[in-house]
Every structure is written in C-alpha cells, then in structure tokens.
Amino acid sequence: MKLIVNGRECEVTRHGMTSLLEVLREDLGVKSPKAGCQQGGCGTCTVLVDGEPRRSCLMPVAAADGAAITTLEGLATGDALSPVQQAFHDSYASQCGYCTPGMVMAATALIERNPSPSRDDVIEALGGHICRCTGYVKILEAVESIAGSAR
Amino acid sequence: MKAVGARLPRYDGLAHITGRTTFVDDWPTPPGMLWAKALRSPHHSALIKSIDTSAAAKLPGVHAVVTAADMPVNMVGHLEALGVPKDEPYLAEHEVRYKGQPIAGVAADSEQIALEALELIKVVYEVRQPFLDIRKAFDPDEPQITPDGNVFFYDPHDHRKVTKGDVDAAFEKADVIVQGAYRPAAIEQAPTETQAALVVPEPDGRLTVYTCTQAMYFTMGVLSTHLQLAQNRIKLVGGTVGGGFGGKVDSATEPLCAVLTLKTNRPVKWRFTREEEFLYASVRASWHVEIADALTSDGWILGRKVMTLHDAGAYTRFSSYGATKHSFHLSGAYTIPNLRTQAYVIWSNHVPTTAMRGFGVTSASFATELQMERSAKALGMDPWEFRLKNANRKGDLMPTRKPLEDPSTIVTIQAAAQAAGVELSAGLRELTNAPRSGDSLPEHLRDQPTIAKLGDPTS
Amino acid sequence: MPAPPELLQPTSESEAIDAFGDGVGVTVVSGGTIVVPDMTYGRLRPSRVVLLTRAGMGGVTREAGVVRIGAGTPVGALDDAVEPLGSAARGVADGEIRAAGTVGGNLCAGPAQDAPRGDLQAPLIALGATVRSAGKGGERSDPIESFLGNHDGRLVLSVEFAEPAAAGYARMDRKHAHTYTMLAVSACRAADGSVRVAASGVGPFAVRLTSVEAVLAERWAPEAAAKEALVDCDPPTDALASAWYRRRMLPLLITRALEGLA
C-alpha cells in the first residue's frame, strides 16, 4: 500500500485493517495525531485525507491506500507557519497542546472550504474535538481571526 | 523585568503548534520496546484465592508477566512522610478492593498480544459484598474495608476536627437554625492525554522514565521505594503533561513499566486506554457535607456545625490531606466566630480518589455557598446582602485562627454583582474590608477569640 | 499472536456480494466507525474482513418520487436529505464521523456498550423503507423493521422509500457532539395518507410504534396516540438516561414529531 504523507511517498506493509493512526505514528514516525481515545470520540487523531478531515483512529489504512495525508507536521512552509497555525499561536489557543494537532487540522480544512466562517460554522467544524484545558473560547477566536485574511 | 506586564508567547507555543511537542506516547519508539497492559479486577470487592499466569507467560510475543511477588516493594504510601500509614498494594495480592484494581502486568510485542495475554491469566476470586454508600460509614453491619474498619484514623481522633469558640452557646442564642446536606459527586479529571509511562533501561543499569506525571518528585520517591533503587539510579524525563488537573499525581503507570523493564531488560511502555482513564483511574472524590448554621433574624451567622464524609475509595492516597484542607475552608469567605467541624475520611470499594483542582476546597465552597443561599432564603434576606454582611474583614480569623490580613471577599462579591447586572444598594457598594467597628460591629463579634487571647492554638 | 484477518477489498457491488457469500465468519467493514475501535480494543478479532470502501456502493438517487440510498453512502451525505432522515443524520456525532460512517453500518448498528446507536433506523421505518440485501438465498427486499436486529448473514446493498407527503422529527439528547442520541421519534405521512411512527433509543434497535399508528388511523389525536407508545417498546436504562426518564419523555417527543404532520 502507499500513502503520500505531507508530500512524501511512503510504503505501507502493515495489515490493511491496522488503523491509519497506528501506521502514521508507529511505522512512519508521524506523531502529531494522537491516540486520545482510539474510538473516534475526542478528535486528537484527526488528519486530512485528500484534504478532508478524518479520524485516523477509525480508518483502516487500506481505505487510505493511495491517498494524500496531511498532518500538522506538513502545514508550515520551512519556518513560516500556516495562517491557522499562526492564529492559534497568536491567540493562545493551545495550553497543554494535546488537542492542538486535531484542532488545527480540522480548522485548516474549514478555512479551505469556508474562508470566512461564522462562529456557528467554527463550532460545527470543531464540535467533535475535545479540549480539557482552554474552555474553547480562544480556539474559536483563533479561527475567527483568520476569516478574510490573506492565505 | 521586561517580561512583567508584557504579552509573551508561550515558551512551548511553537512546539505545540508545529506538532513537535513530545508527549510520553510520542517519544520515538526505542528498539525492542514492549507494550504493557494490566489485568484489572472485575469485582468491587473480593478475596484472591489464586493467580495463575503460566498460560499468559507462554503466549508467543509475551516477554514477562508480573504479580505482587515481583515488586521489590509492593506497598508504598504516598503520604508516609506525613505519617499516613501505607495501605495500598501496587499489584493486588490477597484481595481486591475496587473494580479495576491492577492484579498483574504483562509486557508483550504489541498491545494486541498483551491484551490476549491478559485473557489467559487465571484468577480465582471469592466475591464479597461491597461497601459503596459512605453514609453508612458507621454501620457495623456494612462490610469493613480494612481490618481497622471503614474510617481513617486521624490520630488521636477518627476525624479531622476544627473547633473555634463556643458553638453550643451560639446555637442556644440563635433565632433561626438552617440545615442542609450537600453531596458533590465524584468527577473524573479526563485529561485529553491519558496516563502513560515509558521506561528505558540504560547500559549502566539506570532507568530513564518518560512520564506524564504532574508531580516529578512524588513519582521519583514512589518509584525509588517500589523498586528499591536509589534516586540517582532513576532519571525522570517529564514536564510535558497533556492535561492533568490532579489526576496525574498518583504514579499509576511508572512502577509497572519499571518492574517489567527490570525483568526483561527492554524498554516498556504503558498507555491507558480512554476507558481505563474513565473507569479505573483515580477521580476527585464524592463528598457528603452536612451544615447547620445558627443565625440571628437580622442576618448574622453566629455559629456553624459541619459534618463531612469524604469518599477516599479503596485506599488512602492523599485523602487525609484533602479532607484537612477542606476543613480549613468550612467557614467559606465569611466570619463565623463559633465553629465545630468534623471531617471523616471513609474507605469504600470505589476507585481510590485523589486530587483535582482545588483539592478538598471545591467541596467546601460548593457546600458553604449553597448553605448561604439557603440561609438567606430562610431569613427572607437578599443573598448578596447576606453575604456582604458576613464577609471576612481584615483581622477576622480563619477556622484555624489565622488572622486574615487582606481578605478580598467584599470586592469580589461587588465585582460579581456588577458582572451579573445586579444593582447593589449604595451602602453595599461602598463597603470595604476595613474591620467592623462602632455600629457595624455586633455584640457577638466583639469578643472574637484571637490568637493573643487563646495562647496555644492547638488546644 | 491473534492471526490478522483475511482482508477482502471488493471493487464493485457484485464482487462484494461474492466476497460476503453467506456471511458466515465474515465481518463487514464499511466506514469503520464501529468495527475498527472494537478491533483496537481487542473486543473483536475477525477472521475474515470484507472492506467495502472501494466497492462503490454509495450514492443517492431519486426517480419518480422514490429515493434509493446505497449502503456505502456516508451518513453526512444525508445531512440535507428528505425529512426525517436529514434531521437524524445531522444529529449524528460530528462531520468527521458522519463522513466515515455509512447507512449500511448504521442499519446494522446495535447498541454501543451503554448507549443506543443507529439514528437512521427510526426515520427509515417511518419512511416505510425497504432494505435490499444479499446473502444466503440470494438478493431480497425486506421491510426495514423486520430487518433490524436480523441482519446476520445479510449484506446491506441499499434502502429505498417513497418520498413522504409530510414528516416530523423530535429528538432528545445532550448538546454535545459526542453523545449518542438518547431518544428520538420519527413520523411520516405517506402519499396515501397512512401514518408511520418509529422511535430510537427505546431498545436495542429502533421500534415501529404500531399502537400509536393504530390510534391515528382512527382519528387525529396525537396525545391519545402518544400514550400508547409504551405498548410497543420497553425503554432501557443506560449511560444516557434512565428508563423512568425515557418513559416520560417518549409521549412528549411523539406529540412533537406529529406536529410535523399536522
């Protein structure tokens, strides 16, 4: 099987029913998606699969065969953070940092399809992502602050 | 001092936002690393008649199976240094006292193999009636959790006791007595990162322990004692905690990983599943707090009696400390010159309880603030006015007789009223925490016991 | 080491039917939202998996007032579907889960460890849907309510229903993307005027409330009809709600759902 992870072609030899999360973390050394619950309930494992946000803990890697996978490690261009990353950083939308990868990937997908989301849109897009530290407000403000700004 | 008042980025902000922050589970997998899982009791309370790990040990891919006998020291007390007797086996040996209590540990090539190995461990239980309702703590017919019963002994009493003034006289004088019972429920800290540890054996025989603990020095001490290894033989790598809130102070994962590493000479990692975190990891305790207040009809609190039951769960851990802190906050932010509070720490067959934000204090705040509402209602008095009237002033004494130097109760309540859009009367708006004097100093507060008058505060 | 399952990845519906055979010893994985966590936690150790992600069994078609939904259609594709399906679909988890979980999986979803699942079952009952399935004895169509809970040995291919004349939906749950729907009622009036009512969260699978329908067939009396609901089901106590609470809320939700048909 083959995955294109953050632009890099990777061969996968694990059994097809292994979760995409496990393949990314254990075989490919991509650690930003987390095993927060491994049952789709927390959103810490979210990555982009062909641009769409998906729970990697629920996806058999065989279902991702051939897909382009984008994780947090792939958002920055050299030292330049993506607008979503910069917004999170500037808005203090991260405390312990554990929910951050999933939140940023979901927010990145949102901004891509809806450059000026309303608060309700943001809540809808991030509603499946749990944060136990921030109380969410700064995360919502971070995403809203991107609205309309140059990408 | 350029940093003070400046808006600075988080020191770990860049790492978080680029995915470089390395949690325990993120450390590059060391070669040969094994995965650990624990066999947990399915019963709230049972005797263990026998444990047979032989079939599990033979499963291909399993490198070690450990039980209590494999722990160099199985029983370590978290507060031994404070004189609290140790009571909790790390791995259960003769009995289990809570559903989920670890009995055996396995190290295997994968989590799936480890899970399969657990199924092969044979434990014979003699199930017992559990004790689950702490209100029955003094009922001798209820199952007794320990040989000493169900009530922790705060030598020389069976409760933490705070006494101030003459509470019986206060209740004699009262115009109105208001009582209430408050029962905040147990709460799981639910950090987004579940508990995890990774132990790596170093060539020189030391252990490197990657840990998510909130309490590096607690963990160092606990590990050192369990393993009988001097502290300079253990290196802790931590400080990256994916949420803790008090739930990562019990060193739940490190000892098992360390023992398995010592047995196999391989790195061993144990990460809790979300289910383990919710069901079996320690929680904030449930409490039962009964308060009776002696009130005058014009709104003074003359005295307060409190009886608290704290559910420690199956073992003490930090509960005696939590209930002590709780006791010191039972007058709330208010001046109550006559107090008698009794806080009992009760063992039950629940998961052992531990710290969570404001350990011991949130239960006191919850109970006392609801009691203030209840009292105000009983008196037909505005609850804002009732609080401000009784609020701490400079020089008032805490339950422990420590004089308050600059209590902020009044300004906080005034700010809360403003934020809530509640219009306070001019008199209440202008209140300060200056000591009561003249007309605003009531008879019953004129003779407040002070440290000067009492002498020995431990009497 | 538990032997990894034999993995079959059919690339068409007919290949999927062949791979499924009579279903004995086969675990079907469509979106993976139910099976993959069970495998991760060691609760399920399949010997043979038929993974349907490439079988092209998704898609919604509408022809002459009849809607057909392929089993591989993600729940999220129904967010704007005809009511009451649309409301039920939108209430499932969050967008990422809805993009993965499929209609077929939802139909075959029994209860979770301590909560009800399968939010689409009751709307499809109310819509009078039929299920086309393959398995032993070949392809056949069944009314949804007889299929639910009896899906062993059947591979869901599609569901089909006629668009209703009117629909209503009422749901009770906590305002949080992570909880399953505690209790929900779907109601439809078909083109011929007949009314169907179904509830989810009242048992292991959704239940058609025939006693409620019987009252409405005589006269339009929603409150009287709602009282009959407990004849048809025995709501459970689980992590989300007690039986006591569900029994009290069910008639209320029925009257609310029926407002959509007034």
Explain how this protein is built.
The complex is a heterotrimer of chains A (about 150), B (about 450) and C (about 260). Helices cover about 30% and strands about 15% of the residues of chain A. Chain A has about 150 residues and is of the alpha+beta class. In chain A, helix 2 crosses helix 5 (about 135-145) and helix 3 packs across helix 4 (about 120-125). Chain B has 14 helices and 17 strands. Helix content of chain B is about 25%, strand content about 20%. The model of chain B has no long low-confidence stretch (mean pLDDT about 95). By secondary structure, chain B is α+β, with helices and mostly antiparallel strands. In chain B, strands 3-5-1-12-9-10-11 form a 7-stranded mixed β-sheet, sandwiched between helices. Chain B has a 5-stranded mixed β-sheet with strand order 7-16-15-14-8. In chain B, helix 5 (about 215-225) packs across helix 6 (about 255-265) and helix 8 packs parallel to helix 9. By secondary structure, chain C is α+β, with helices and mostly antiparallel strands. In chain C, about 30% of the residues lie in helices and about 25% in strands. Chain C has a 5-stranded antiparallel β-sheet with strand order 4-5-8-6-7. Chain C has a 4-stranded antiparallel β-sheet with strand order 9-10-11-12. Chain C is globular, with a radius of gyration of 18 Å. Chains in contact: A-B, A-C, B-C. The interface between A and B is medium-sized, with 36 and 29 residues.
